[in-house]
Structure formats: structure tokens, C-alpha cells
Amino acid sequence: MATRFTAVAAVLGLLATLLSLGAWRNHAVPRAAEPRQPHASERSHRRHSLAKKLLATTAVLALSATVVSISVLAVFTDTQSVGNNTFSTSTAVDISTSPTTALVTFSGMMPGDEVTNPITVSNAGTPELRYAVTSTTTEDVLAAELDLTIKSGVTTCTNAGFDADGTVVYTTGDLGSTAGINVIGDPTQGADTGDRTLAGSGSEILCFNVALPLASTGPVDTTTTATFAFQAEQTQSNP
Q1: Is the bond leading into 219 cis (omega within 30 degrees of zero)?
Q2: pLDDT for residue 67 is more than 70
Q3: Distances in Å between the alpha carbon of 87 and those of 82, 83, 126, 236, 237?
Q4: What is the pLDDT of residues 23-58, one digit of tens each?
Q5: For 82-107, what is each residue's pLDDT tens digit?
Q6: Rounded to two decimals, what is the model's pTM?
Q7: Is residue 167 pLDDT above 70, yes or no?
Q8: pLDDT the model gives residue 23
Q9: How far apart are CA 165 and CA 210, in angstroms?
Q10: Is 238 exposed, middle or buried (0-12, 13-18, 19+ CB in 10 A)?
Q11: What H or E segment, with its residue span, contains residue 71?
Q12: How many CB atoms lie within 10 A of CB 88?
């Protein structure tokens, strides 16, 4: 603050000196001489001298205003930082099944035959997940003749125990198709009808039953292979 006022005082002092100098020159006692009319060159010189004084005065005033302006803008400041804003991602969504292959198979199947087997679906990760299942087959004719039914909560997942209890997850329908059929839920992102949810490290057992109805007329000597794709996604921030 002391430096700011010293600078302003110095500028104002310089201004006062210039103004005093101009006043002294204008009021100095002239030498004794005969009155005479000033020559044209003298008048021109005086006008130039006055213009220089006015110019100098203007420059000093401008400098003074600049110094005052700068001193006004010099304010106290402070900064407070907020650190340690740390973020980390969760473990990956991880779904697993047991078995991982040949869940339901039957060689030499005839009308009236069926096969029933359980599969354990597990959430091998920490975050909660939802999943859907799609069935894709290698051909469409026999796949359309074979009936697939999926249940949860079956006490004894065998041909004999399949109808005894449990809740139907996939109502009896085609085994699959070459284009793929959603047999549980819908793999489209977000919560869809039929999607199933598993908590972190949770699991459940589903019971799959595949039957060739007694009324089926074919096709004969045909093979189809189904692939069940268990597709999972996070539920957190994914309504």
C-alpha cells in the first residue's frame, strides 16, 4: 500500500511542478523595453509552447489515472484446493454355467422321447447382473419339431420329476432357430420382460427339458445342434 501511494504522490508532484513552471513563465517580469507588437514568429512560437505544455499536462494526467487504476485492481486473493477425489471401477460382469457344453443331447431320438437335465447359472463377479438366454440351432426343421421347456425350482430335474414342481421360465416352444430365439428374457440392453437377476456371487439352477412329441412326423435321419447363449449385463445404473 505504501508503494502505491508513493507512486501516486510522485506523479501528482510532477504535475504540480509542470503547472508551476508554466505559470512562472506566463507571469515573469519582462525587461524594460519599448512597447511593441509581437512579431508573427513570436506569436507562433508562443502557440507552440502552449501546445507543448498542454500535451505534457495531458500525458501526466493519463499516467496518473493509469497508476491509480492499477492500484485499485491490486486485491488480496486466495485459493483452496480439494484433492483426493478418487474413482475406481467395479469388477467385470462375469456369468458362468455348469455344465458349459452338451446340456441336453439325445442320439437316435424317436417321437415320444425326451431328455431333462439341470444347469447351474452363476454370477462369478461382485456386481449384480441380469441375464437372458438365446437358443440358436444349426437347422430349422427338426428344431421346430423339438419342444423346449425351462423351469426353475424343480426339486428333481429328471424326466420323471420335471412335471412334479417348479416354475416355468420358458413355456414349451421351439428348441431354437438358425436366426436365434429368445428363450429367457431379451438380451437387449436394459431390463426386459423375462430377464433373470443374480446377486454378486449368487447362483440358481434351471431345469431344461427337450421332447419330440409323439405326434411328430419327422423329419427322419436329421440332426440339429442348439447353442444356448447366456448373455449378462450390469443392473447398476442400467434400468
Answers
A1: yes
A2: no
A3: 15, 12, 17, 16, 16
A4: 444 444 455 545 555 556 666 666 666 666 666 666
A5: 999 999 988 899 999 999 999 999 99
A6: 0.69
A7: yes
A8: 47
A9: 17
A10: exposed
A11: helix 40-73
A12: 4
Using left for φ > 0, alpha for ψ between -120 and 50, and beta otherwise, residue 147 falls in beta
DSSP notation for 199-210: -TT-EEEEEEEE
Name the residue among 36, 212, 198 with its Cα closest to residue 121: 198
**C-alpha span between 17 and 36 (Å, rounded):** 32
Q: Measured in whole angstroms, how far is the alpha carbon of residue 121 from the centre of its chain?
A: 31
**Residue 52 C-alpha from the chain's centroid:** 67
**Could you tell me what percent of the chain has a pLDDT over 70?**
69
Give the CA radius of gyration of the chain: 49
From the list 106, 207, 192, 223, the residue with the least C-alpha distance to 149 is 207
Total count of residues recorded for the chain: 239
Rounded distance between C-alpha atoms, residue 55 and residue 59, angstroms: 6
Q: For residue range 214-229, what is the model confidence (pLDDT) as tens digits? A: 999 889 999 999 999 9
For the chain, domain boundaries:
1-21+57-71, 95-234
Task: Kindly report which listed range (23-27, 63-67, 131-135, 176-180) carries the lowest average pLDDT score.
Answer: 23-27
Q: Which three cell numbers stand for residue 127?
A: 456386481
| Coil, helix or strand at residue 24 | helix
The one-letter amino acid at 190: G
Paired residues of 216 in beta bridges: none
